[in-house]
Amino acid sequence: MRFVEAAEATLMRDRGLDDYFPVAPRVRLEVDFEAPLLFGQEVTATVEVAHVGVSSIRFAFEVWGEEHQGRPRRRAAYGAYVVVHIGSNAAGAAHVDGARSVPWPAAWAAALGPAE
After folding, report:
1. 114 pLDDT band (50/70/90 cuts)?
2. Cα distance between residue 24 and residue 57, in whole Å
3. Where would I find the Thioesterase domain in this sequence (predicted)?
4. Distance CA 48, CA 65 (A)
5. Distances (CA, A) of 102 to 13, 47, 49, 85
6. What is the distance in angstroms between the CA of the first residue and the CA of the last residue of the chain?
7. 3-state DSSP call for residue 61?
8. Do 20 and 59 form a contact (C-beta atoms < 8 A)?
9. Contact indicator for 47, 3 with CB cutoff of 8 Å
10. Residue 63: which of 41, 85, 84 has the closest Cα?
């Protein structure tokens, strides 16, 4: 998941959403593992926005182990996860205790894609 989170961070940075992580906790995760990753093996992780809701996003991801020690490139895992927007307080800190989902800010919704 660290590889997936790094890919997600790049995606959000590329869309100009630097304050995304403190206000978008994961609420669901599905992973299917297909092959082991070996120590020292190069890894490629991809993340894409699969669905944007009013206050949630569903991401799809894949993690690939690159060719290593004579073993071919192979998909190691794939899956999906959901995050929800919990907003922040007046000081800019994420609401944590008793957090409830709230709609994405308009600028964020535009950067993420159309809500469905």
Report:
1. low
2. 9
3. 23-68
4. 18
5. 21, 23, 19, 6
6. 26
7. strand
8. no
9. no
10. 41
Find tokens 């800019």 and name the residue. Answer: 92
Residue type, 7: A
115 neighbors 109 (Cβ within 8 angstroms): yes
Q: Domains of the chain: which residue ranges?
A: 2-112
pLDDT-above-90 percentage for the chain: 70
Q: Which residues pair with 64 in a beta bridge?
A: 44, 75
Helix (H) or strand (E) holding 9: helix 2-14
Q: State pLDDT tens for residues 62-86.
A: 999 999 999 999 999 999 999 999 9
Question: And the tokens for 63?
Answer: 């993690």
Note whether 32 and 79 are within 8 A (CB).
Answer: yes
What are the Cα distances from residue 92, in Å, to 25, 39, 45, 84, 97? 16, 39, 30, 17, 15
The sign one gets for the Cα dihedral 36, 64, 83, 9 is positive
Task: Please check whether the domain covering 2-112 is classified as CATH 3.10.129.10.
Answer: yes
